[in-house]
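Task card 7
Instruction: Convert sequence to structure tokens.
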Amino acid sequence: MFLKNAWYVAAWADEVTHNLQQITVLNQKICIFKSQSGDFVALEDACPHRKLPLSKGRIKGDTVECGYHGLTFDCSGKCVWAPGQGNIPSNAKVHSYPLHEKYGLIWIWMGNSALADHHDIFEIKNYNDPSWGINRGDAMELECNYLLMCDNLLDPTHVAWVHAGSFGQAATKSAPLRVKKTDDGVIVHRWMLDVEPAPFYKKVVGFKGNCDRLQHYEVRYPSNALIKAIFTPAGTGGSEGKLHEDVFIMDSYNFMTPVTESKTRYYWFQLRNIRPDDPELSQLMTDDVQHAFEEDQNVLNEVQKGMTNKTSPHIDLPIDAGQLRFRRQLQAMINEEVQVDKQMAQ
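Output:
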């Protein structure tokens, strides 16, 4: 089960064209395209007549024509033409999903359309600040449940083993974690003081010697994450107040869209506080981060198989506190939503 009354990423904006294409979000098949007027449109991908996917039909101006008998639908999902001499049946319509473009992403609302407010979309600080650089990679296809990636993004400790050659270092194995519940998610964080910078960050920090490092892992309901990395010269960290002038900050934004119960589409990009107009640095960061996320992908795909086919119970560790707290609250939100839907259906 999924939380429906929430914004999920449907696609990168540059992935959606005037051509019809099918995507799947929360087990729902959706026909998505860009209209002649430049608006993004998402319709239930099933003609109400014989359920041929509309994405198998044709785009005609700002309408979609079914490829079986020609029923034609406007961008609101209303049927505007049907074969035969009678009136168009009143139930000849398809659901239209609210969409909103922000941060180069197309966001989709999967629940009650009346509750969709684009102001509720995850807020990204410094996104349009010209003093901050940005890098991004292609969306990744994960063969695992989206909550496994949410777990991963509330787990600073895994980097010591999964990302030993990039994000990991000795201190990430044992430094104590702090867990904080917020109104919209969970934060797991820690400062590691006077430690050697991890291999990836050695390439980009602007100072020599040891550092104070912050790992800030934050996931917000239902599946959006901010991973903040702060590296500042040793002796100048320990809080997020006034930081050293040579501080390096990387904010990694991560959006997990459930495709099915065992598949996830993963969107990500990073903002950095240094060298905003340096394309070589952007490419270096994209390549290295992509490699690290592929390491996560390989692990989580296997974890999905293991959890699906387990023959004995799995265990939890103290380092899982943030993940377990997140899952409990999200499940409570899903249960409440289901109950409200049942009451409205009565």
